[in-house]
Amino acid sequence: MMYKFFQTHEFDCSHTATGGDKMDPAFLHKLDELRERCDFPFKITSGYRDITHPVESKKQKGGTHTQGIAADIAVSNGAERMKIVKEALALGFTGIGTARTFVHVDMRTTTPVMWTYG
User: Fold this and answer.
1) Residues 23/11, Cβ–Cβ less than 8 Å
2) What residues have CB less than 8 Å from 17, skipping those under 6 apart?
3) Are strands 113-116 and 95-98 parallel, antiparallel or unpaired?
């Protein structure tokens, strides 16, 4: 499948060789739209994570990354962080987490949430 700003290998699990084919195409299309609205390059630091990934293995059921409906986007300043959050909310992303170096976005089907990483 073709996306304007991404190639599926950018979402490959860094822990296993499972590949990016487990990403949800609808999520990737929405992420492509987010990138277009933000108008600056996105570096994906985490996309799909296999359930055996060290971060996911600590969770009881695995998180949105294991479902292929989440991505972490590197940021280098507060203006980028703010733009991603603003546009992600406008596009209907339902999970948004902010950290000093990245913003997590996802399309969870449970109650929408926003959080910060400590």
Assistant:
1) yes
2) none
3) parallel
